[in-house]
Description:
Largest sheet of chain B: none
Helix content of chain B: over 70%
Mean pLDDT of chain B: 83
Structural class of chain B: mainly alpha
Low-confidence stretches of chain A: 1-5
Number of strands of chain B: 0
Oligomer: heterodimer
Shape of chain B: globular
Low-confidence stretches of chain B: none
Number of helices of chain A: 12
Order of helices and strands of chain A: HHHHHHHHHHHH
Radius of gyration of chain B: 24 Å
Order of helices and strands of chain B: HHHHHHHHHHHH
Amino acid sequence: xxxxxxxxxxxxxxxxxxxxxxxxxxxxxxxxxxxxxxxxxxxxxxxxxxxxxxxxxxxxxxxxxxxxxxxxxxxxxxxxxxxxxxxxxxxxxxxxxxxxxxxxxxxxxxxxxxxxxxxxxxxxxxxxxxxxxxxxxxxxxxxxxxxxxxxxxxxxxxxxxxxxxxxxxxxxxxxxxxxxxxxxxxxxxxxxxxxxxxxxxxxxxxxxxxxxxxxxxxxxxxxxxxxxxxxxxxxxxxxxxxxxxxxxxxxxxxxxxxxxxxxxxxxxxxxxxxxxxxxxxxxxxxxx
Amino acid sequence: xxxxxxxxxxxxxxxxxxxxxxxxxxxxxxxxxxxxxxxxxxxxxxxxxxxxxxxxxxxxxxxxxxxxxxxxxxxxxxxxxxxxxxxxxxxxxxxxxxxxxxxxxxxxxxxxxxxxxxxxxxxxxxxxxxxxxxxxxxxxxxxxxxxxxxxxxxxxxxxxxxxxxxxxxxxxxxxxxxxxxxxxxxxxxxxxxxxxxxxxxxxxxxxxxxxxxxxxxxxxxxxxxxxxxxxxxxxxxxxxxxxxxxxxxxxxxxxxxxxxxxxxxxxxxxxxxxxx
Lengths: 288, 276
């Protein structure tokens, strides 16, 4: 009898502790999501129109445009975040103590900067008159290369991608560094005794060791880049003639500028499903 | 190649490359700081070091009531959101860490799953809800949303941290007649200072940086936050760059200070649960 009572009491207390947090998230995060999902099947006047919004979106060239840009943005960002992050992390493992902490702090400052400020900094860096980059280019003899990346429809998206890479790189470098440090040193020592060079060590010890972390980070980064609004909006607002429009900025425009909330909800549902599929595919890369 | 020579170039090359990388990563920030100390006239001269140091833009920015007011707003929102995240997160993390109950894993997964929700998608429905409950253009709506951003990961970090604290001390307290809540408050919390520092820093960082919600759900001057103010200065034809740079630097100053001081806790908190 007493055993059952203490058992019940324990379960209840556990629920009590997590209830505030869980309920809060259900209310603030989950409920709007479900609401948006429901909204996508309806009209502005409240009539049920089924999948009409979805068909309309898939036929909309601007939507497809934003989608392609988002895929490009995400793919390039993730590849560079993880690739450069891995290189930098390996570099950092070779450094000692205080020097390593110092370099790590300096590099990590870029991550602590709000996207709004990152946009300010890079807008100035990309500015033909205000930035010091054209001067450097000119002195290197590349003066004919017009430093006008944000106003040029061909390069606007790439310019934003570069800023995104710079901004988030420290975070991924840090996480990969943690993963690298988890690989036992004995493996490397045993391999070098057996005659393995740096490249073989990398291929057979490092890569399998960080593979799971890299996939987790890839999933995290994919989601983050796919829905990243702030940087793109603040740097180009969608770029000269939609050349740097991404899904978040486009959905924002449809919802809050054209006030077509249901249409925007449908597009965001499609975006969400895409993210889920992409993450699912990436998850398959994980080692059991 | 003889091993000694290889080691020598190795020992020199690695620190050198890492220094170059660090400098490259830092240059944009350095540029921001330098340029903000230039006069409005010389800002059009892209030199790497200001010829004359002038505090002109800073006096302009600090003298602007708009900036001061929005800075205050940012502090209010970030502070409240951090406090709320701490409250919900510590309680929730403790619950997930110490108790076994039905639906524990699915609920934890659900909490982390909310991090996958796109802000744009939430904001569409949230906008209409906010209008209905007349919370539009208030700081409260921002605080609620910002907590929802920071809470999932904060809860995860602190749960992992609690997992590393042995339960013997709490059990001793319980035997002595402490209630669960008291044991949590008087025993576990004082031991968790690093973990608390980690999630408080993380929450503050996330909320201070936040732009999208602050931009979408406010329209009047009284609820503006600093990132939105800075953006407002960008969109026009005549962009006051010195103002923007000075404002930006003032804005990131608390962030940098907190970050440099707390980075140890923050980094250990973030990386603790990820190496699995």
